Amino acid sequence: MTVAENQFENLRLELRRGCLALAVLGQLKQEHYGYTLRKALAGRGLEIDESTLYPLLRRLELQGLLTSEWREEEKRNKRFYRLSADGEGIFARLLEEWRAINAAIENIL
Amino acid sequence: MELLDRYLEAVRSKLPWERQNDIIAELRANLEEQLEDRQQELGRAFTTEEAKAWVGHLPAPAVMAGRYRRQQYLIGPGLFPIYWMVLRTAMLWVFAVMVVVNTIRAFIHPIDAGTVAAAIATGIVNAAFVMFVNAGAITLVFAAIEYSVLHYPSKFPQFAEKVCRWDLNDLPPIEPASRGKKRTILHAVADAAFHVIVLAWLLLLPKYPMLLLGPGAYVVNALPYTFAPVIVNFYWAVVALNLVQVVWKMVDLNTGAWAGDRTFEHFATKIMGLVPLAILLMAPGHLWILLKDPAAEFAKYGTQLDQINQAIYLGVRVVLAITVITYAVELGKWAFARYKQRVVSAH
């Protein structure tokens, strides 16, 4: 990787990092487990690999933004996630912030 | 699939022990479903090679496990700027102290010419070791602070914020404009005149020692001591140095070079100033003071004379060491300022 490509990759990851939590919170207004969440996000244009998404879910849960429960589905135990009450509040504020930033970027460009 | 089981066990071994089962259970469910979907798309089970390729595309076990850990810093971003500032300042001071101590030690306990290189190398290694130990200690202290702030936040509320708090009254004043003032002809003439006066004073000293010692010259004259020949050499070296400076300044005044860059003259003069000190240091037998009548007075004043010469020897070495260090630091500062100027103008 050239220096320029490396620089772009670092900045791209930084840009994505901020957006992923918002995307995950947004998608979890409906209940999902890890794999279906990944498929749903990919279906809407946001590919996230397993080593990023699954730990992110745990982190958001530890922060109190998600709740989870183990349930058996199709003879397999799965951990289902959805937004908590705090998570809904935080998501709404983050979404507002995102829209403000988006509008500002549009103005600049 | 055996490969997937082995992959999950590899991830498990790197997870925090209290959450291993829970995380692996979730990961297994998600990866097995992913695998089933992929096989459904193919309409058959994976071959051995396909299975290897599929497991191979998963993130490395250490990476997968690592992302389940809380983000940990030895010294976090809040504290790091303070840590870096303290570390740099401490290293500068440690280095400066080591240089001064080793240089003075070298002069107090002179080393043979053949082992100078070895002594310098040993000094550098010792300095590096001391700096390493100090850097480690500072890092440990800040890591402990980071840990305490993270794990006991109620005891250290907004620690970094408090440390970074600043007061408008602490801001330093703007440096006075005089630094940028150019040298005037008046300065140059006064400087040259001063050196002529100093030279004249030096030349009058042998005949009129009271110009240096005042009325004490008569007291000194009455003592049983006299200067060794090396003092005369020292005296003439000082006179020669001043004469060179006077001539240089006269030439500068004549050619107009007084207004230009005098960095070379400044450093050349300082280096030439080491010559008289070196002459003093090389006094034969380390004798600067002698007895006027050794045969008659040695018994009475011999021990005192010895002590005087030893004190002068130590004093000369310390003065030479301090002078060399001061010149080296000044030269280093000048070189660094030139380097900074070059880098800044390149941008």
Stretches of chain A where pLDDT is under 50 for at least 5 consecutive residues are none
In CATH, the homologous superfamily of chain A goes by the name Winged helix-like DNA-binding domain superfamily/Winged helix DNA-binding domain
| CATH class category of chain A | Mainly Alpha
Average of per-residue pLDDT values of chain B: 84
Mass-distribution shape of chain A: globular
CATH architectural designation of chain A: Orthogonal Bundle
Which class do the helix and strand fractions of chain A yield?
alpha+beta
Total number of strands of chain B:
2
Q: Tell me the number of structural domains of chain B.
A: 3
Low-pLDDT stretches of chain B are: none
Instruction: Please give the largest β-sheet of chain A.
Output: 3 strands, antiparallel
Structure explained in plain terms:
- The complex is a heterodimer of chains A (109) and B (347).
- Chain A has 109 residues and is of the alpha+beta class.
- Chain A has a single domain, classed as Winged helix-like DNA-binding domain superfamily/Winged helix DNA-binding domain (Arc Repressor Mutant, subunit A).
- Helix content of chain A is 66%, strand content 17%.
- Chain A is globular.
- The two termini of chain A are 29 Å apart.
- Chain B is built from 13 helices and two strands.
- Chain B folds into three domains: 2-66, no CATH class; 80-165; 182-346, no CATH class.
- Chain B starts with a helix and ends with a helix.
- Chain B has a two-stranded antiparallel ribbon.
- Chain B has 347 residues and is mainly α.
- Chains A and B meet through helix 2, helix 3 and strand 3 of A and helix 2 of B.
